[in-house]
Each structure stands twice: as structure tokens, then as C-alpha cells.
Design brief:
This protein is α+β, with helices and mostly antiparallel strands and 94 residues long. The protein has helices at 4-23, 27-36, and strands at residues 40-44, 48-53, 58-64, 70-77. The radius of gyration is 13 Å and the shape is globular.
Length: 94
């Protein structure tokens, strides 16, 4: 569980990431921005990317279109997924 200050920082980073994804259609720019925010790629394929920020317990799921752009995305906390060990396979990006 995060303290109040960490929870505020977590939410601020989540909002920043979501706004950046919505305003940046180029995944290379998104990748660079996520790296600058200390996100680590868990999976980075042509169809799906999963990035995590372990210190703030945030993950970013990006589903890409074949022609470029995003078919969907999700920015959430580990807790919103039901905790560690939850499988991403049953999760639909929106």
C-alpha cells in the first residue's frame, strides 16, 4: 500500500502518461517518454506493449493497430488488476 504522498505521485504520473498517449500517435515518442519516467518494458512487440513502473506500481498496456496508432490502451495500478500474479491475457485494452 502506498502512502498519501506516493499515491498522489502515482496518480499524477498516470495522468501524465495518459495525456501523453492521447496526444502522441507515434509509439517511438511514447516509448521514449515512458523510459524517461523510469518505466521498464515487460513486452514490446508490434501488436502489444506492456510497460511497468515498479516503484509507483503502475503499468501501461498499449495495443497497436497494424497500420500504426493505437487500437487501445490502459494505464492502471497493480492493485486495479487484482494484485501481483494476475494474468494479462484476459484483459481487453480500451
Amino acid at each position: 500500500m502506498l502512502g498519501d504522498t506516493q499515491a498522489m505521485q502515482q496518480r499524477a504520473v498516470m495522468v501524465e502518461v495518459e495525456e501523453m498517449i492521447q496526444s502522441t500517435p507515434d509509439y517511438a515518442d511514447v516509448r521514449e517518454a515512458l523510459q524517461s519516467l523510469n518505466f521498464i518494458p515487460e513486452r514490446d512487440n508490434a501488436d502489444i506493449a506492456i510497460w511497468v513502473q515498479p516503484d509507483l506500481r503502475i503499468f501501461v498496456l498499449l495495443q497497436m493497430n497494424l497500420g500504426g496508432g493505437y487500437a487501445g490502451y490502459k494505464v492502471a495500478t497493480y492493485d486495479e488488476l487484482g494484485g501481483p500474479g494476475r494474468d494479462f491475457a484476459g484483459y481487453n485494452a480500451r
